[in-house]
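User: Hi! I'm working on a homework problem where we have to compare a predicted structure to a textbook description. Could you give me the structure for the chain below?
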Amino acid sequence: MIMSDERNFRTYYYDKFGIGGVEEKKSLEILLKEKPISVEKLKQFCLRFAMPAMYRNYVWKLILDIICANPDSHDFQMKQRTQKYNDLKHAVQILRYAREDSPIGNVFLKMYLLESGQIKFEQYKYDCEFEDFVLIAATMANICEDMTDAYLVSVEFYKMFKKSKDSNEILVQKTSQCLKSEDGDRKLFDLFHKHDLWNSLPLHLWFESCFAGVLPETSIERIWDKVIGGAHGVVVFVAVAIFQTFKRPLLSMKSKDEMVQYLMELPEDCGDIIVTKALDIWSKHS
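Assistant: Happy to help. Predicted structure tokens:
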């Protein structure tokens, strides 16, 4: 009984800090040895357990269909995709849509627009219209060690997330409802309504970018594991966790502008606290 309790505590501790437990790591390795690899099982793993960092990039590529379920084809597929990446990057530089010193998120955007046939020779300013893509791509470039992987995962993650998530209006409504149920004394919920904060909060950008540029890369990975696994609605609980984490300073503020400005510049060292709290709320509501 004592050993069982200790194991459960360890598993809980691993989940809290995003460290794959021994049992989970072994289970994932078994799944990755299957031929063909079951993408559905990988999605379930993403939803149920903490993803071991050493396998994250590989699992994301499998789920996002960047590489197929047959491991024997992976080397050939990645060689082809790397060649395509190099050709696209060279093309946007030749066409002067990007320079060698351009931010990588902007370079990836021009590559994506060129690849998808959306780029126009007479129009150079896409960064505002596709700000969400730029934020996702810049974050992914810091997560992935290989830039080919970073570009491929950015594109497929962006397309999957945009296609599958609810509209921003629905997500804002769900965030309000969740905050109401989670805010025990309702002080924060009432404050938001008193100052009509729901129309001024940066929720739209948060949701569009899936919190890229808001949470640090070392924390956001755990949220993106769940999104890639199929739990696109987890973004609602991340927003609620942010509000709860900074409830005390928000309650001390007197104006709407002060509160909005504060939430636009979240302290970076609170990323793990926010994500852990978000996943706790998500697990409870799931």
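For your comparison, note the following. The chain has 16 helices and no strands. Confidence is low (pLDDT under 50) at residues 1-20. Good luck with the assignment!
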